[in-house]
């Protein structure tokens, strides 16, 4: 299929598909008359790339994820390693989001007389220590 059809079937711009090809997420298609011709299974691969990106995977992570689909080696171990790493990222994001939610809920109820009182009630100096220790 031509790149325009692949783009239409996946909801992406042709430029995105060319970029995926350039960075190695899509194998180079064969060409006829100077035009790219993608196999039918390219639709599934592009949809998987798009879905993984929507789920927060970087293009480098997606490349690792997909690399097992092009060779004869088992993909399970690579996918599990990537999944474990991503779960840690998700856990950190959840923790951060819960802290933000707590702060916002506090701010909705806040009747502090001054910024200084508010900072003390929120224990922001304790939070700063926590943030610094997690960056180390």
SSE string: HHEEHHHHH
Q: Can you tell me the CATH architecture? A: Orthogonal Bundle
Q: What level of helicity do the residues show?
A: 55-70%
CATH topology: Multidrug-efflux Transporter Regulator, Chain: A, Domain 2
Strand order across the biggest sheet?
1-2
Which structural category do the helix and sheet elements fall into?
mainly alpha
Q: In angstroms, what is the radius of gyration?
A: 23 Å
The total strand number stands at 2
Q: How would you briefly describe this protein structure?
A:
By secondary structure, the chain is mainly alpha-helical. The chain has helices at residues 3-10, 14-22, 42-54, 59-67, 76-109, 115-122, 124-135; strands at residues 30-32, 35-37.
Would you write up a description of this structure?
This protein has about 140 residues and is mainly alpha-helical. The chain has one domain (about 5-110): Multidrug-efflux Transporter Regulator, Chain: A, Domain 2 (Orthogonal Bundle). About 70% of the residues lie in helices and about 5% in strands. The protein contains seven helices and two strands, in the order ααββααααα. Helix 1 packs across helix 2. The mean pLDDT is about 85.
